[in-house]
Amino acid sequence: MKKLAIGIDIGGTNTKLGLVDAEGEMYGESVISTRQFPDFDQYVEELYIGIQSLIKNIDFPMELVGVGIGAPNANYYNGTIENAANLEWKGIVPVEEKLKRFFPNIPVIITNDANAAAIGEMVYGGAKGMKDFIVVTLGTGLGSGFVANGQLIYGHDSFAGELGHVVVNRGSGGRACGCGRKGCLETYVSATGIKRTVFKLLADHLEDSEFRSISYNDLTAEMITKAALNGDPLAIEAYEYTGMLLGQALADAVTITSPEAIFLFGGLAKAGKYLFEPTKKYMEMHMLANFRNKVKLLPSGIDGKNAAILGASALVWESLKGKETEGCKCE
């Protein structure tokens, strides 16, 4: 009987879910609207219907062994989402408790999306066999997951490893961040951050650029990446500046956990050399001598359209190491 786990990625607009085996093979996926269900109980019912639909489409005997969830502001210890700015549900949301009513005999595990990406990298991706590494997710914001001695670092309250909110500009000109502070790394190194950098460069320089005819709201990080690949000087300079700040921050992070590798995951990483080369250059330049030229900077081994689902499902397989579970047998 095939053992499968459910991976769920809760986003501000949509929720992605899929059935995944221990090797990372997907056996069906689906999407439901997150925003359409401001009532969390209704959302959970819709999520359960979506899971059952996926199971019914499986044409071989299977055993559901757990549910893994990646979500913004998720508390691994409490099984909750807490004060997530980009979700309809406010305050503390008891995700694990609500889903356990539908799946009482199998583990239901939730963590924040960047931590899920780190576990996914360890179970399915480039960090297989590694015990010390960092995953940095470069999306709308900057998330990160730190693994030390084979264990994800959660801290005493489950909110450890917030590299995106390390302050990199403490001057009066630091960029305003959604967290309420100024100068956080993610205001510079993220899809939103690089847009802000491009418009700062447009104001400070006179070079011709395709961005001069594009409004801020219409500009996307994908457009900046494409322009860099096409040789646009402002796009290349934007990535150089982004890589400089990321590299400096990573050099500091290395001194804390001494990782074997750092994986860059998400949309900005698709810029390839335009992000990786300056990041590596400035990371080594600012690295403490003991760590210099020892830390690999790598693209994610699972970066793709199903990466978020795979990362969430990996929580289940990681939790089941050395354990037996009754599971939910479905035929």
CATH top-level class of the largest domain = Alpha Beta
N- to C-terminal separation?
A: 9 Å
Radius of gyration: 20 Å
Poorly predicted runs are: none
CATH topology of the largest domain: Nucleotidyltransferase, domain 5
Mean of the pLDDT scores? Answer: 93
The number of domains is 2
Class computed from helices, strands and strand pairing: alpha/beta
- Specify the biggest β-sheet: 6 strands, mixed
Count of DSSP helices?
A: 8
What does this structure look like?
It is a single chain. The chain has 331 residues and is an alpha/beta fold. It folds into 2 domains: 2-120 and 306-330, ATPase, nucleotide binding domain (Nucleotidyltransferase, domain 5), CATH 3.30.420.40; 130-299, 2-Layer Sandwich (Nucleotidyltransferase, domain 5), CATH 3.30.420. Helices cover 33% and strands 22% of the residues. It is built from 8 helices and 14 strands. The protein has helices at 40-56, 95-100, 113-123, 191-204, 221-229, 233-257, 273-286, 307-319, and strands at residues 2-10, 14-20, 26-33, 62-71, 74-75, 80-82, 92-93, 108-112, 133-138, 142-148, 151-152, 261-265, 296-299, 328-330. Strands 1, 2, 3, 4, 8 and 14 form a 6-stranded mixed beta sheet that branches. Strands 11-10-9-12-13 form a 5-stranded mixed beta sheet, with helices on one face. A 3-stranded antiparallel beta sheet has the order 5-6-7. β2 (14-20) and β3 (26-33) form a beta hairpin. α5 crosses α6 (233-257). The longest helix is centred in the last third of the chain and has 25 residues, at 233-257. It is globular and about 60 Å long.
